[in-house]
Amino acid sequence: xxxxxxxxxxxxxxxxxxxxxxxxxxxxxxxxxxxxxxxxxxxxxxxxxxxxxxxxxxxxxxxxxxxxxxxxxxxxxxxxxxxxxxxxxxxxxxxxxxxxxxxxxxxxxxxxxxxxxxxxxxxxxxxxxxxxxxxxxxxxxxxxxxxxxxxxxxxxxxxxxxxxxxxxxxxxxxxxxxxxxxxxxxxxxxxxxxxxxxxxxxxxxxxxxxxxxxxxxxxxxxxxxxxxxxxxxxxxxxxxxxxxxxxxxxxxxx
Length: 254
Fold this sequence. Notes:
mainly alpha, 10 helices, 83% helix, flat
């Protein structure tokens, strides 16, 4: 029964590839859902948040794809909860599971979805818009179903193997994973900042840091301040054309 529930959660996560970028596939969503169906919502929240912080800066760039974090997050959280090993076990299991799932994903995309793409092209060439829509639905639903079956099956057959694997991990390695669980969120933030922070937004980042570090402003206050700044900046941009127009009218009077 648990394997079926894990598969259903995975199916929901993999639907993201066809319904738009809704972010339901991220560990911050999958972790709590796994915790909910396995009876440990608190651990699901902890695992999901930790994995999200660790992988929030990863993204596909050209043909370089990051590990399949949906499968890694689902199975990492599921195995961590059922084995009782906590967040450290989820981190240890997530990356290898995600890397293996990426291989399956690439094979499916190249072989199966590649064929479906050609079928969709034929429908488009014939002016069959319903055929194009049908192949779109078949494509992403079949992919979500395949990955869900793999996740559910891996959880069903892999539980004892994972518990045996965790039992032979030396204590110093487990201690290292505990330390890594605190470092990985910082690494995730650093990866994200390297893509987002530039000379235009860096001052706002530093202002937020100073407000939190030295004035003790809570995160909610920083978020509300950011909203106000955005409103002011957008309002200033809307007023700029009107000001320019009025200046031009004054010049025309002379």
